[in-house]
TrEMBL record, chain A:
Cofactor: [4Fe-4S] cluster
Keywords: 4Fe-4S, Iron, Iron-sulfur, Metal-binding, Oxidoreductase
Predominant localisation class: other
Family recorded in the similarity comment: Belongs to the prokaryotic molybdopterin-containing oxidoreductase family.
SUPFAM superfamilies named in the record: Formate dehydrogenase/DMSO reductase, domains 1-3
Compartments in which it is found: Cell envelope
UniProt name for this protein: Dehydrogenase
Domain 4Fe-4S Mo/W bis-MGD-type, chain residue ranges per copy: 44-100
Organism: Planosporangium thailandense
SMART domains: Molybdop_Fe4S4 (SM00926)
Keyword Lipid metabolism among record annotations: no
Pfam families named in the record: Molybdop_Fe4S4 (PF04879)
Length: 189, 877
């Protein structure tokens, strides 16, 4: 350790020689503080994203380390938000890393009193069967005047408006091909 | 805006720093009001009166932008002689059919021309025709009933119109039946005195707004309007927006920089969910879903819904390209491009119609995809009882929201109305992947698509909705493979072969975006919707998004820093259509193509280069000269003159008056909310006569105005959001930060109301109306102020609506109180102005809760008919 480094380790020296004469900023910083690193510094990668809350569409930067989201901040490049996020947007790391977020399929049988476990592939197969059965049972080829209907009113769908465009597209495409008409979204609500 | 779109509000503050006057018209005092130059705390549900007053002020004081109005709006068009206005019929327009509660719009037409379809009710006309035909062979009332239902459902969004003949015009605007004169007469009774009386504001406040707005509009200056669901959540919500549109057109504030009417939408991709709709009445790009008609084929569908003039004249190309995207090689000219694969509408099939069907046991299954109706939609109890009456339910969400657990711990389990052992609904809860765990695009509130990239893998069974629907479709197709049933052809012929990635088999979101963008005959991505053809050679999943994957480049993923671009920032994301950032921007130049002023120059005609140029992509044919006049027989965009900026309209003009396409009148009129303690002070007609009502024992309505029993519910309540929570809470009530910031459900009341009802700050209040009783913590605040309305004092109560029983922050749901009664154009519920009583203390627990509501109903004399009357004018006279 040179004399200069030794001297600079002394807060009073820094206070007298730096732009912090009152010792309320950098001059007072301890070695421990100095060695702390922001999560944003230690990320493996930064991924460009968009805030999932309101429709302003603020830019987000998602900081990732070891395959986990470690921080989400505003994207200063965005001409929409210029790096800012509101309380909800700033909390979106908690949204995606919440400890109560569900990770497993839950199943409740008719008249059941508790949740049960169910394998994802089995659940998908059962849901496909429910759609096919309901559709078959409730199919309407024509109305009472013989006008073509070719539809089912046996099941409905209500989607949130945080769905991606690509998701909405596959939903509408599949439902329409199934003849399902009662397809709705938060956009009406 | 500062509360619910805080980061967007930075631009308002920036404008204020540069000298803009900020006017906040809102019953609530919020962070917006705190920094606004003028805050007008008007009565919830009285905005049409306020805006109507501004229209009258503009007309009476000659503050309108003459050159703009004469050239760019339908002010000169002459109306038919048999049109009757609300001035003549005490609050009704001509054509109202009381038995079917709907308008026959035929008398609303222009003289000399029929506009067969327009924005909104695109199928209005053909439904009426098929109705008339049917009445000879079938019972008339049956057909009228069905017709009434079908006539109300069709496209919302940008519209067009078919012209038969040419409308007569008077460019001097003197003809007594021209739109301008009709408008003047219609709004003549919206005087400052009436505005003050109805809205509960002072005349001075109103005039201050009128003066500031008109002083800041014209050649040199523009004013912008910004609204959210405070305007749309009414039984006359569409007409709120119409009133603003009339005002902004009169002031020349549309299609110009710093002008416009901006919808501040509340969810990351709610605009996208409308453009590529998961909505019952439209197909991607605002193409209407077809209705059931005799011998309907693709040609009749298109001719009934599209104008032959203006860009909607190309609806055949847009529709055929969509059918080709969905059914690929199976869609040919010989089979009408599989047009008969599309299911047909016969009625309104909105979310609330589904709820009513569920309650009646007429619905078996339900998918809830990131949506929590047990908390988030009107009349929570009806929604939950509907869920309890299903065979099966699929819920996809992050957390175990109330709509997933209603069978176990919903309010009806607590009251004993339901028991888990008695609920037969099979529930599948599938955990969803978050935005950081998938690729995809959101469309924000300014129509801009932005791509979010996958950052990490989801955990366990968490999957994207793209994964869910792709694999559900794949499994269903595999199970139906080999079926010869006619009904299964649309599934088996569907193009459904997206490439997948990774262990979980995630479909490639960019491949889906590429299909939405569309492909040309050579299989290459299209670059513009102008390339779409009706001959089956192009495929396009959503015509207004065509060009977002031009040259195979993911345009929504463009992120050139804002600091390195012009102020329009055209290289960040991609805005539909064609990356235009301001719609109808041809109107930013005068009819000759010159900027209205240097200060407001945005787009202009360059006579040397013979093209439109400026700061944005022209929302106009780029080489159409201002001198262009269409030949008599011109069609599609060729029928639009070089001076007509509103290219989606068949007449190229902004509509001050709507000759067809609206379910509740060609002009806005002030009606009281569906439930209101105040009589309508402008007309004998109390409410929107065409509103949709849903009589049901769980959906009783309060008496209104001077009707006996109205005094039992003397207070107006309005529901809204907080900065720290999001809608029904699924994305906020489970987060520690946000729950700590806003831990509990509360009601905002004024000190005067607190004194009148004995409410204590931080104590409890019980709020009751004909449908429910809830409790909330009391926040006594001067943010709420009693109003003088119609000569008496009126108190308003504010209720944030985010809460339910699950999560870290819990409480009763305000939406329990809301009625299901809908705007007839768009089937949206009134959340912004309803009635209630309030009393101190906690609400009764079971079994005393239901009797309390029943007691209030009895005291108010409520029956199944109360509040359902269509026409009230005659009764009052």
């Amino acid at each position: 350790m040179g004399v200069r480094t030794w001297l600079e380790g002394w807060p009073v020296y820094r206070q007298l020689t730096s732009h912090d004469p009152l010792g309320r900023g950098a001059a007072a910083k301890s070695r421990q503080s100095r060695n702390l690193l922001a999560r944003t510094e230690t990320a493996d990668k930064v991924v460009k994203s968009v805030c999932p809350y309101c429709a302003v569409g603020c830019g987000q930067q998602v900081y990732v380390r070891d395959g986990e989201v470690t921080q989400i901040e505003g994207d200063p490049d965005s001409p929409v938000s210029r790096g800012r996020l509101c309380p909800k947007g700033s909390a979106s790391k908690q949204l995606v890393t919440s400890s109560t977020r569900q990770t497993k399929v839950r199943y409740r049988r008719p008249y059941g009193t508790e949740w049960e476990d169910l394998d994802l592939a089995t659940a998908m197969d059962m849901i496909a069967d429910r759609v096919i059965e309901t559709r078959r049972r409730t199919w309407q080829e024509t109305d009472s005047n013989g006008r073509a209907l070719r539809r089912t009113l046996g099941f409905a769908s209500l989607g949130g408006a945080t769905l991606d465009n690509e998701e909405n597209y596959l939903m509408k495409k599949l439902y329409t091909a199934l003849g399902a008409v009662e397809i709705e979204n938060q956009a009406r609500i | 805006m500062a509360e619910c779109h805080p980061v967007g509000f930075q631009w308002v503050m920036e404008a204020k720093q540069r000298g803009a006057t900020i006017i906040h018209v809102d019953p609530r005092f919020t962070r917006t009001s705190a920094v606004a130059d003028i805050h007008v705390p008007l009565r919830a549900g009285s905005d049409i009166a306020f805006l109507g007053g501004l229209i009258r002020y503009v007309l009476e004081n000659d503050k309108w932008f003459r050159e703009y109005v004469v050239a760019y709006t339908n002010a000169p068009m002459i109306l038919r002689e048999d049109f009757r206005d609300t001035e003549d019929l005490d609050g009704l327009f001509s054509g109202f059919q009381e038995d079917t509660r709907h308008y026959d719009p035929s008398t609303w037409q222009y003289e000399g021309a029929d506009v067969a379809a327009a924005a909104g009710q695109r199928d209005q006309w053909s439904d009426m025709e098929s109705n008339e035909k049917g009445s000879s062979s079938d019972s008339r009332s049956e057909h009228a009933r069905r017709g009434a239902a079908t006539a109300r459902v069709s496209t919302s969004g940008a519209g067009g119109g078919t012209f038969h003949g040419r409308p007569e015009r008077d460019d001097t605007l003197q003809h007594p039946r021209c739109v301008f004169q009709v408008l003047k007469r219609h709004f003549s009774r919206y005087t400052p005195e009436k505005v003050a009386e109805i809205c509960g504001v002072s005349e001075a406040q109103f005039l201050r707004v009128a003066e500031a707005l008109t002083a800041n509009s014209g050649r040199e200056r523009t004013s912008a309007f910004v609204y959210a669901v405070g305007w749309t959540h009414h039984t006359v919500g569409v007409q709120y927006i119409r009133t603003a549109a009339i005002l902004q057109l009169l002031l020349g504030n549309i299609g110009r920089p710093g002008g416009g009417i901006m919808a501040l939408r509340g969810h990351a991709s709610i605009q996208g969910s409308t453009d590529i709709p998961t909505l019952f009445n439209i197909l991607p790009g605002y193409l209407p879903m077809p209705h059931a008609h005799d011998h309907e084929d693709l040609a009749t569908y298109i001719s009934a819904d599209a104008g032959s003039k203006g860009y909607w004249g190309n609806m055949d190309a847009y529709a055929v390209s969509l059918l080709k995207a969905w059914w690929g090689d199976a869609a040919t000219a010989d089979n009408d491009y599989c047009f008969d694969y599309l299911p047909r509408l016969t009625d309104k099939h909105s979310n609330y119609d589904t709820v009513m069907k569920q309650l009646a046991g007429e619905s078996e299954g339900y998918f809830l995809i990131g949506e929590n109706p047990a908390v988030g939609t009107a009349n929570g109890k009806m929604n939950r009882l509907g869920l309890a009456n299903l065979k099966w339910l699929v819920v996809r969400d992050f957390q175990l929201i109330e709509s997933a657990t209603f069978w176990k711990d919903g309010p009806e389990i607590e009251t004993g109305e339901l028991a888990p052992e008695e609920i037969g609904t099979e529930v599948f809860f599938l955990p969803a992947a978050a935005h950081t765990e998938k690729d995809g695009s959101f469309t924000n509130t300014q129509r801009m698509l932005q791509w979010h990239h996958k950052a990490v893998e989801p955990t366990g069974d968490q999957r994207s909705d793209l994964w869910f629907y792709f694999h559900l479709g794949r499994i269903i197709r595999a199970k139906l493979a080999g079926s010869t049933a006619r009904a299964d052809r649309p599934i088996l012929d569907l193009t459904w072969d997206y490439p997948t990635k990774g262990e979980a088999g995630d479909p490639d979101a960019e491949a889906v975006l590429a299909e939405i963008n569309g492909f040309g005959p050579d299989g290459k991505p299209l670059s513009s919707y102008t390339e779409l053809k009706a001959d089956g050679s192009t495929r396009c999943g959503c015509w207004i998004y065509c060009g977002c994957f031009k040259d195979g480049v993911n345009e929504p993923a463009r992120r050139k820093p804002g600091s390195e671009q012009s102020w329009v920032a055209p290289e960040w994301g991609w805005a539909w259509p064609a990356n235009r950032r301001i719609l109808y921007n041809r109107a930013s130049a005068d009819p000759e193509g010159r900027p209205w002023s240097e200060r407001k120059a945005y787009l202009w005609w360059d006579p040397e280069q013979k093209k439109w140029t400026g700061h944005d992509v022209p929302d106009f044919q780029p080489d159409k000269s201002p001198d262009y006049r269409p030949p008599e027989d011109a069609e599609r965009e060729d029928a639009i003159a070089g001076t007509e900026p509103f290219i989606m309209q068949a007449d190229g003009r902004g509509w001050l008056y709507v000759p067809a396409g609206l379910a509740d009148g060609p002009l806005p009129a002030h009606y009281e909310p569906h439930e209101s303690p105040v009589p309508n002070q402008l007309y004998g007609q109390q409410q929107n006569p065409a509103r949709q009502v849903y009589p049901h024992r769980l959906n009783r309505y309060a008496p209104s105005g001077d009707d006996p029993g109205a005094e039992v519910f003397p207070y107006v309540f309005t529901t809204y959001r907080l900065t720290e929570h999001h809608t029904a809470g699924g994305m906020s009530r489970w987060l520690p930060y946000l729950s700590e910031l806003q831990p509990e459900f509360f009601c905002e009341v004024s000190p005067q109301l607190a004194a009148e009802r004995g409410l204590e700050h931080l104590g409890w209040a019980t709020i009751v109306n004909p449908r429910a009783v809830i409790e909330a913590r009391v926040l006594v605040t001067e943010r709420m102020r009693p109003l003088r309305v119609g000569g008496r004092t009126l108190h308003q109560i504010g209720l944030p609506y985010h809460w339910g029983g699950n999560g870290l922050s819990t409480g009763d749901s305000a939406n329990e109180l809301l009625a299901i009664a809908l705007d007839p154009n768009v089937h949206i519920q009134p959340t912004k102005a309803s009635v209630c009583d309030i009393r101190p203390g906690r609400r009764p627990r079971a079994p005393a809760a239901a009797p309390l509501v029943a007691d209030y109903q009895r005291r108010a004399g409520i029956t199944a008919e109360t509040g359902t009357e269509a026409v009230t004018g005659g009764k009052k006279k």
